[in-house]
Amino acid sequence: MNMKMKRGRLSSSIIAILLIAVLAGCGNGGSGEGNGTASGGNENGEAGAPKSATLTFWHHYSTASPEEKTLNEVLIPKFEAEHPGIKVNAVAFPWDQLHKKIQIGGSAGELPDVARLDIIWVPEFQDAGLLVPLDEQFADFDEVVGQFLEGPVSTAKVGDHYYALPLNTNTKVLFWNKDLFAKAGLTEAPATTDQFFSALGKLKAANPDGWGYGEPALQGWNILPWLWSNGADVLSPQYDSATGYLNAPETANILKRLREAYKQGELAGFEQGNVPVTEGHANGTYAMMAEGPWAFAQFQSQFPDFQTAVAPFPGGETGSVQVLGGGDIGIFSQKHKQESWEFVKFMTSEFAQKEMAKAGQIPVNLQAIEDEEIRKIEYFAPFLEQLKTAKARPPIPEWPQIDRILSDTMSSIFMTDRDIQAELDAAAKSIDALLAK
Predict the structure, then answer these.
(1) Are strands 267-268 and 86-92 parallel, antiparallel or unpaired?
(2) 5, part of any domain
(3) pLDDT digit string, tens, across residues 210-239
(4) Are residues 353 and 314 in the same domain?
(5) What's the domain count of the chain?
(6) What share of the chain is helix, strand, coil (3-state, %, to 5)?
(7) Distance in angstroms (rounded) separating the CA atoms of residues 351 and 333
(8) CA angle 57-58-62, nearest 5°?
(9) The domain that contains 252 carries what CATH number?
C-alpha cells in the first residue's frame, strides 16, 4: 500500500501473527432505494444537507448466531441513534444464497445499499461493475483505511482501487470432544492426518449413533484444508490451470481416504437432514469438527455447560494448512452513497468491532485488537496460531464458479461410487475451459 497506516500502540506479537496470515490473502431484499430522499453526498463523497434514507444491508450472519443478535440489538440501534434520519433494514441470508442473491440482483438492478461480502467475492463483483470504488468516492477514505491491519485491507483492493473495507478475519481449528475421546480410549486430538483417520474408527466404535467428524459442506472452504495439508491443490500457482493440480494423485489419495470414512459412517454433516455440525458437536453427535472462533460464542450462548477443546488442524505432508477466511463490507448503492459510507465506517469502527469480537469475530480494527477487554478473549489464541499457516482461496473473479464445480465434484465423489480420478479429470477440464474464457 502507498498510504500511511496508522497503527497505534498495538501488541507486536498479535499484529505479527495476523499480518503473516492475512498477507497470504493478497495474491462466505430490495433495491436499496428505501423510502427516503436522495443521498446527502455528491459524487466526491462530500456531505450535503442531512436527508432521510433507509439503507438495505444484506449479510450472512447466521440467524442462530450471537453475531446477528449483536447486529440487530446493539449495532444498528446505536448507528441509528447517532445518525438521525438514517434507518437500516438488515436482511440475513445463508452464505451461498447471499452470493446468488447479489449475482441475480446485479442483473436485475435490485441490489442492497451495503452488503457483507466474503473476501473471495470482491474480485467477482468488482469485475461485474457492481461495487462503488471507495477511494475514488469518499474524501476521507485514506484516513479511515488507516485504522485497519494492512493485510485485511488488501483483500478489498482490486487493481488500483479499493471496493470495500475489511470487516473481520478468521480461520478454522480442530474442535474435539474430550468425553467422546475418553470413551474411545483416546486422550489427545489427532496431530496428523494418519492419526485423524485412525481415531475416526475408534470414535465410531465407542459412539455408534454418532460420527467421528462433522463437515457441514463440500465447498472449497471445507475441502481445501484437506488438499493443502496433504500436498494437493486446485489450481496452479499462477491460477491459470487445474489440470495437473486438482486431478493430481495427491488429490485423489486424500479424497479416497475421506470417502472411505464417509462410507463407513465415520464422518457426516453435509447431507440434507444431518444434525447441524456445531450443535451436533455440543450434544455428542460429532466427536470432532473444524470451525472458526464464532463457534465459541455459539456454545456460550446456546450450550453454556458444554466444554470443548481445540487443537491445530491435523497436519499432513505439507503441514497443518487451514483456509484463510474473513469478510469485507462493500457499497452497491448509487442513490445513498454517503449514508452507506457512514454505515460502513460505523461497522468497522472500534466500537462495532469490539462488540462483534465478543460474539466471536476476530477484529481487523487496530484499536479494537489492542483493547484490553478483547485481548482477554482466550479462545482467540489458537486461531491466531493457525493463521500463521492459513492460505487464501484463489483471489480471482472466477473462483465462485470454480468453487461450484468443486462442490459438485465432491458431492459426486462422496455420494456415488464413481471413479475418483475420472471425476477429478472432468472437473479439471471444466475449470480449465472456464479460465480460458
Answers:
(1) unpaired
(2) no
(3) 999 999 999 999 999 999 999 999 999 999
(4) no
(5) 2
(6) 45, 15, 40
(7) 24
(8) 120
(9) 3.40.190.10
